Amino acid sequence: MKKETWKELPIGTVNTQAGNSVVNLTGTWRSGRRPEFIEKNCIQCFFCWVYCPHFAIMVKDGKVTGINYDYCTGCGLCAEECPTKEKAIVMVAEEIKLAAGRKQ
Amino acid sequence: MKTTKILNGNQTIAEAVRQIDPDVIAAYPITPSTAIVETIASFRADGLITGEFVCPESEHSAMSVCIGAASAGGRVMTATCSQGLALMWEMLYIAAGLRLPIVASIVNRALSAPINIHGDHSDTMGARDTGWIQIYSENCQEAYDNFIQAFRIGEHPDVLTPVMVGFDGFIISHSAEVVELEEDAAVKKFIGDFKPPFPLLDTSRKFTVGPIDFTDYYFEHKRSQIEGIENSPPVIEEVGKEFGKTFGRPYGFFEEYKMDDAELAIVVMSSAAGTCKDAVDELRSEGKRIGLLKPRVFRPFPHLKIAEALKKMKAVAVLDRSSAPGAFGAPLFTEIRSALYDYEKRPKLVNYVYGLGGRDIKVEHFKDVAGKLERIADSGKVDELLGYINLRE
Hints:
The complex is a heterodimer of chains A (104) and B (393).
Chain A: E1 14-15, E2 33-37, H1 47-51, E3 57-60, E4 63-67, H2 77-81, E5 89-93
Chain B: E1 3-7, H1 9-20, E2 24-26, H2 34-45, E3 52-54, H3 59-72, E4 76-80, H4 82-87, H5 89-97, E5 103-108, H6 122-126, E6 133-136, H7 140-155, E7 163-168, E8 177-181, H8 184-191, E9 208-209, H9 218-230, H10 232-247, E10 254-257, E11 264-267, H11 272-285, E12 290-295, E13 297-299, H12 303-310, E14 315-320, H13 331-339, E15 348-353, H14 363-379, E16 386-388
Parallel strand pairs in B: 2-3, 2-4, 4-5, 5-7, 6-7, 11-12, 11-14, 14-15, 15-16
Antiparallel strand pairs in B: 1-8, 6-13, 10-12
Helix pairs in contact in B: 1-2, 1-7, 1-8, 3-5, 7-10, 11-14, 12-13
């Protein structure tokens, strides 16, 4: 994405691109750990979906299906809040990959 | 029709606020500007103004309310001084960064410690790099005139920058003077409507105000902010001229008093300039070729115009009503000395700090300064770059 010069920016630190958080991949902030979804332990309580600050819990047809690593920052809230005895989300070490940054 | 009234500085500003009737006024009382806020509150209670008046729990909150209301698209003002302005600190930068043309009436007062409620310029001088336009007033009339012009200047689409208008605590805020008030309708007409570029209450467009910038955008946004205040000089000039045409009292960046054939000059701002005029009159009657330059606009600093006005002097004394501990000189002095750097032939400059915590400066003190200027002009030497006036040594 071409970045504007200072003369091209709207006056007053205004962002006119509504919903542009979609192009900013917060998953690039993640380092060290990431949540892993274990479907067989999931009771579909949606706690992880409620608590995730980055809307990174994927849902299809009313069911949690996994984690969107483009936006997951690895904060661990989902794993912390998962109420099942055998956790449906656990934090695991991840190999750090250089992320792509903004989507083109 | 104009009305002539006897008012002190605080009452004068309150009258201007009544005439302008901003959409939102958010302010917290603090000596010596309390009477502005109290009077506005009673105007509101009496139905003389229609704007919202908010008295939050602190000045930090007052400026925050101003920022929210201005972001919504309102014409907004506040009044404060000293510790109150200091408590607004981080919000001052945000108002400027968001390009919100909030107008603040500042009754200049010393900063603690030691605690002191009297007039000096430490408060606004400390805020000189917050990105706000700064205008200083000599008396009640100038405070009124500058306050009205501040809205036109700040709200101009090329400028969109907050403006603070200062006048000296107690010396002006609590001293009654004869003030000419313009007609309410004439003031409203002069100011006109404010058209904010991105009012949050405009729900027809989608945008976010003030989101986080990382290393890839912060610098560009800051540079864009600087453009607003850099665009302001022609606007300040035009508004000052139009004010003169409309109301008979024109304004520029500074006032020159008996400077035409002067060889020596004193530079001093705000109320002390009035005393200095008396001193210049006396010195002139003794045959001394001395004049006064009274800066009105400190931010943006009119460096070229001031340098042109001073370049032919033999010696110039710059008087600051604030100190800058550890700096090369006090704020006004360092600006002026820098402004003259590019001139091959330039006057000798000396800096005097005066009047901290409301300490008096009298005609005799200005005459002492004139005597020192004569010696500097004769010898071509400045022995002490920074001195203090009326201080027990």
